[in-house]
Write a structure and sequence with these properties.
The complex is a heterodimer of chains A (209) and B (210). By secondary structure, chain A is mostly helical. Helix content of chain A is 78%, strand content 0%. In chain B, the strands form 2 sheets. Chain B has a 5-stranded parallel β-sheet, sandwiched between helices. The chains are: A mainly alpha (209), B alpha/beta (210).
């Protein structure tokens, strides 16, 4: 029964997503680039906050300037590992997007055929794919952050093993407020741009009569 | 006004025809390729090799102004008929606030009130065609093309649909019916008919005698 309820909710969400309006192809890439940038920023913040605790004699939190200064200081010594983990996180995101888009095109094959038969706009077929991919990108960014953290700490050998499990929840290691402040503007600006494009699109359609 | 004058293309040879605005016309031929070629030329998907072709709108607009109803129609089986119609309305860049007003106008012409709450799997063959015609009329077309859409339907239902098409034609919409059956013309004697095969046969015969 529980499984049935879960499946029903998923189908309902899928149906709601279908009804929503479309965003253009440019916005798709725009959104994707913004999410990548947010992933980079989040990794930088995490590392900076963590490094303060390890290296600095005086612990300073909630100040970005000091953390970045410490980060730059650190990069002089361990440049290789840092870039290596950033590349892994990027590859994870790219892999998810390429695989997911191909799978979702198969899932929405009927709609795309329907649009092509009725001379409709193909962008309406890409709408649900866009929304799902955006959610997955946010999810993948968080995973990339977490995974990179684990690898980073293991190889650098500055971490105590006990901290690994609840490292994200610790306020001293990972500053959530800073992450939210810096990531949300990127996501919101993308969402607003998509909404404005859609609004223009609706107005154009309304004037047809 | 649509005008073909001595048009040569892949399957058409020396084809000439004149269709005025708000006219109802039946075109017959045994070859389906020649009928397909007519649709491609009307929708500006392909250009003629030789001859003159005049269309009422620009080539970019012809795809929007023209609607085609095939014999086998494709629906989305996940959702109801009304949602299918709404989805087509959304695809063709109309706002959904106008949808109910537009649907009422179409339901006055085509009475498919019983079909709206059904799924497309539950529909019968003649109901599918009626829904297909309704779907085509949603996007304010000026030309409606039927490509052998009454092929798999009984004579009683086909005649009722044909009377329905005459009512649609009274609203100043040109209707072009493309059929493969040569007997299809004989049922409806008032409407203008063209048979492509006879012309082609005569020309080939004359060339052969020479």
């Amino acid at each position: 029964m529980v499984i049935n309820k879960i499946l029903f909710t998923i189908l309902e969400i899928r149906y709601l997503i279908r009804k929503k309006p479309v965003a253009l192809k440019k916005n798709f890439f725009f959104h994707f680039i913004i999410l990548l940038c947010t992933a980079i920023i989040s990794i930088f913040i995490f590392n900076s906050n963590y490094l303060i605790e390890v290296y600095s004699t005086h612990y300073i939190s909630n100040i970005l300037i000091f953390s970045l200064a410490e980060l730059i200081y650190y990069l002089g010594e361990y440049k290789y590992f840092f870039y290596f983990f950033i590349i892994i996180s990027f590859l994870w995101l790219f892999y998810l997007n390429f695989v997911l888009v191909n799978k979702l095109y198969l899932a929405y094959e009927d709609e795309i055929e329907y649009i092509l038969n009725n001379n409709g706009n193909i962008y309406y077929g890409r709408l649900p794919i866009l929304y799902i991919v955006v959610f997955v990108n946010i999810f993948s960014a968080v995973i990339a952050l977490f995974v990179s953290e684990l690898f980073y700490n293991n190889i650098s050998r500055y971490i105590v093993v006990n901290y690994l499990s609840l490292s994200l929840l610790n306020y001293s290691q990972f500053n959530l407020t800073l992450l939210l402040i810096l990531t949300l503007p990127g996501i919101i600006s993308g969402a607003v741009k998509v909404y404005l494009k859609f609004r223009k699109y609706l107005l154009k359609a309304g004037n047809h009569l | 006004m649509i005008l073909f004058r001595n048009v040569f293309s892949t399957s058409l040879e020396n084809f000439s025809l004149q269709i005025e605005k708000g006219e109802f016309i039946i075109i017959n031929s045994s070859d389906s390729e020649s009928l397909n070629q007519i649709i491609k030329l009307l929708g500006a998907y392909s250009l003629p090799d030789k001859g003159l072709l005049r269309l009422p709108f620009k080539r970019e607009l012809m795809k929007k102004e023209m609607e085609i109803v095939y014999s086998e129609q494709f629906f989305l089986n996940d959702r109801k008929v009304e949602d299918n119609l709404k989805y087509t309305f959304q695809i063709k860049e109309f706002s959904l606030s106008i949808f109910k007003v537009r649907l009422k106008k179409i339901l006055d012409l085509i009475k498919i009130n019983n079909c709206l709450e059904l799924y497309p799997q539950e529909l019968k063959a003649h109901q599918k065609v009626r829904v297909g015609i309704a779907r085509a009329l949603l996007s304010y077309p000026s030309i409606l093309i039927l490509f052998d859409s009454l092929q798999y339907i009984d004579e009683v239902n086909s005649q009722s649909i044909f009377h329905l098409l005459e009512n649609i034609n009274n609203n100043n919409i040109t209707i072009i019916y493309l059929s493969r059956d040569s007997n299809f013309c004989h049922r409806h004697r008032k409407i203008k008919k063209v048979n492509i095969d006879q012309k082609k046969y005569l020309e080939k015969g004359l060339n052969g005698n020479k």
